[in-house]
Amino acid sequence: MLSWFAFVLPLVLLLALWASKPLFVRRTRTYKHAAQIRTLLNPPDLSLRSLLLARAQPNQRLVHAFGLTSTFVSADTKLHRAFTTRAKVLLAGAGEKNDRWWGVASSAEVAVHHFLPVQQTTDFSTFIQCVTFSVVLSTLFDTDLDTLHYDDLVYVTNVINQRWKDSKIKDAAAMRQDDSLRKMMAYIDEWIVDRHQHPNPLNFILPAYETMWRVVAVTVAYIYRCCDNTLQDVAITFGRNPTEAQFQAFDFGHNGLQPSMQAIVLEVLRLHPPTRHIARAPVASGSSWWHTLVAPAVERADIEAVHLSDVYGENPSAFEPMRFHPSRVPVGGRAELYAFGYGRLRCVAAAWAPMAAAVIAAKVVAQIKDAGCVVTVGDKIGGRSGWDGWAIEKGTE
Ligand code: HEM
Measured from the CB, is residue 306 less than 6 Å from ligand 1? Predict the structure, then answer.
């Protein structure tokens, strides 16, 4: 028996090595510590091409779900440079109007005004999705907000949500059978005037909208759910003066020192990072014999878990924006957030997105008040789904 085993085992190992196939596939290896996450996302000895390949492989589902052709799904280094450069140009676009934030603030104001409930009740997450989608289209693509209709936006944002979820459980053929992508693109074709300039607008819409709407929704939700409503004043003051100085200001309110709008959004990104896990295919050590035998199918950085560690201060699972007050910097320095990734593929909008989300959230809060509407608070703060019980309603007076 032993001699049979001694003969067969090396044969199996040799076959596995010859076929370059892992023998014992562990489906996913998850990293929950900051140092491991930094190594996974920014390995020191890996070329940019390998880094892009490691990201592109787990993202192929986005090709089937949305027809993406961007750097998120490709190992091409030239495409990476062209795409990230173009994204930076689009993000800087609002700056052409002298004041960098004027474009975002005025788009948010118009969108909220358009979509606040004419009927008695509006679903909270649907409303935030439509407002955020409109602001993304208007600021990145110069879409005229008057051409956007609520029902069409509801359709498109629902399709994005549904296809995103489906892409995790359905294969390419099943995704192709569903005609919703073609129908959704018919709307987007009408909204984006310069299609020559933007041959595949979803390449930019998706990373921007899909993350931003959830940051806006969670920020607005905490403003209504937490701290005896004192955060509403912070949002309204910032909405009236959406400058970077006001974004960072810790002002005194009726109940003492208030968190800045920046601290509120950073706390939202810490507790509810929109990208909870960042996946990489293990291309790095693909040639070693050990890797061939035991490689995991995917390695992933658990951003949500690392953000809950006590390096961010006491009681890390509680929503406590004052932990970002300058007086609370721990002796070893403030721990960094990984909501925008880390290293060479870190998000190009890491500086833009927190302020933009804050501006949209502030305009939502201010206009809900001005229009005499109220927010009905649900039991839980949701993510892509899970917003049961949340609504915006017309006030009774
Ligand atoms: C709160 C909002 C956002 C969050 C949380 C976020 C998150 C992320 C994360 C985690 C990555 C790294 C992905 C990886 O390493 O695999 C990333 C990359 C990227 N994001 Fe964002 N993002 C946000 C908003 C935006 C916006 C508004 C844009 C604008 C178009 C954008 C464009 C990009 C691009 C182009 C990359 C790829 C960078 C590269 O390959 O070098 N993101 N984002």
Answer: no
At 68 the pLDDT is 97
93: domain CATH number is 1.10.630
State the distance from the centre of ligand 1 to the C-alpha of 35, rounded, in angstroms.
21
Q: Compute the distance from residue 204 Cα to the ligand 1 centre, in Å.
A: 10
Determine the structural domain holding residue 75 and report its residue range: 52-275+347-384
Residue whose CA is at the smallest distance from ligand 1 atom 8: 340
Three-state secondary structure call for residue 278: strand
Q: Which atom of ligand 1 is nearest to the CA of 275?
A: 10
Residue 250 lies inside a defined structural domain of this protein = yes
The greatest distance separating any two alpha carbons of the chain, rounded to the nearest whole angstrom, comes to 88
Minimum CA distance residue for ligand 1 atom 7: 340
**Model confidence over 225-261: pLDDT tens digits?**
987 788 999 999 999 999 999 999 999 988 789 999 9
Q: Would you say residue 85 has pLDDT above 80?
A: yes
Q: To the nearest whole number, what is the mean pLDDT of the chain?
A: 89
Q: Is residue 9 part of a domain?
A: no
**In the structure encoding, which two tokens stand for residue 247, read together?**
């974004």
Report the number of distinct structural domains present in the chain.
1
**Residue (of 156, 269, 184, 189) closest to 222 by Cα position:** 269
Q: Does residue 70 fall inside a structural domain? A: yes
For the stretch 184-211, pLDDT in tens is 999 999 999 888 888 999 999 999 999 9
64 within domain boundaries: yes
The answer to whether the CB of 104 is under 6 A from ligand 1 is no
Which has the minimum average pLDDT: 127-141, 179-193, 258-272, 274-288?
274-288
Give the count of alpha carbons within 13 A of 2, CB side only: 0
Ligand 1 proximity of 58 Cβ (cutoff 6 Å): no
Tell me how far apart the alpha carbons of residues 16 and 325 are, in angstroms, rounded to a whole number: 55
Atom of ligand 1 nearest to the CA of 80: 40
Picking from 395, 365, 108, 371, the residue whose alpha carbon sits closest to that of residue 233 is 365
- Label each residue of 179-235 as H, E or C: CHHHHHHHHHHHHCCCCCCCCCCHHHHHHHHHHHHHHHHHHHHHHHHCHHHCHHHHH
